[in-house]
Amino acid sequence: MKRKVISLLFVFVFIVPVYATTEFTDVQSDHWFYDNVNQLVGDSRAIIKGYPDGSFRPSSQLSKDQFITMVVRAAGFEPGNASEYWAQNYIDQAISLGFLKQGDFSDYRSTINREEMSMIIVRALDYLEGTIAFSDLNQVNDVVLDASDFTQAYETYIQKTYKLGIITGYPDHTFKPQGVLTRAEASAVLIRLIQPSERIAFDYESLYGQVHGDLESHLLGGSNWVNPVTASDYASAQEDWGLIESDMSYGPTEYQVEHGLTSKQSLDYADGAFEYDENGPKEGHLEDFERLLQRRLPQDQIDIVMEYVRKKMDKYTYLEHDEAFFYLDNERYLVRLHEVVTFEGTKYEQAIAINFNIWYRDTSFISEYEEDITQIMPYKDVVIYR
Description:
- By secondary structure, the chain is of the alpha+beta class.
- The chain is 39% helix and 12% strand.
- The protein has helices at residues 2-15, 34-42, 64-74, 88-97, 114-129, 139-143, 155-164, 183-194, 204-217, 233-243, 254-258, 285-294, 299-309, 363-374, and strands at residues 249-251, 269-277, 280-281, 323-328, 333-342, 350-360, 382-385.
- Strands 1, 2, 3, 4, 5, 6 and 7 form a seven-stranded mixed beta sheet that branches.
């Protein structure tokens, strides 16, 4: 029954005359979204509509109730506006169709982000096309630089819509899961929902090569390298964020940079932690830490640090020292590693993480901070490598 509905929907898309988009004062024939809007507005289901003032408002952000309404219409239903809250009939219809579940959202009037869209799209596809078999969903995380930002509850939905080519990434290989789509961007998503031929093929090998080749170009000596010492706090942090592919802890965070809360100890400063479980370092953590070093230091200097770190096999084995300082590249940089031990002295003792700090040794850092930072306390097992 579902497949019959789909075939009818596709027929409607092509045989119903479209409304001229010249009705819209803000949609022109040279706009990239022109054809998408043309089809959706002209479709018999009127999946997307304009505003009474004759505008389409392509740059306006989309609310949850607006997107839900569009998907319900795309599925072939038009319950009409409710008297008290206009979208209630569409929300109720979406729940009855399985596109939504009670409690998914607390405020339907708020903007909808890309990962929330993914959830609704996947559920709508289950209705329109039946259960779709997927394999190797984690390939998506391999080719999306900000996969660590996926909210866990939405991760599988994101992976599925990405693999299907309905909601994909940006040219910089990010997905921006909390980003809000505009009405113009939503028109592309809806066209891909109802027309499989418009979906973007997932080419793992090509995407993987692009992403990881691009990462290499941002390291020391690469064509896209940005000097962390001379760049602004934001530009430098942004480069580091782009190198991190796992959920490894890193600072400064975007919030810290935007609110001026970054450390002023050094012209180039970064910190974070890579973690361990019973199987070894958590996936991608050591690789991300090494890339942060590779952006700043020659590989032979990095190897000194990584050789020391790789002696730790899992959360039950320990580094040679509780705390280690590495003066690297003719002492231009100082790197600190501090092993985090929980339940120390009990049968539950575990060394679950290594905190790290990276400092560029400018005059201010040396005169104001370094002595206190590197002071060897009598109760600490500390070593300095020079």
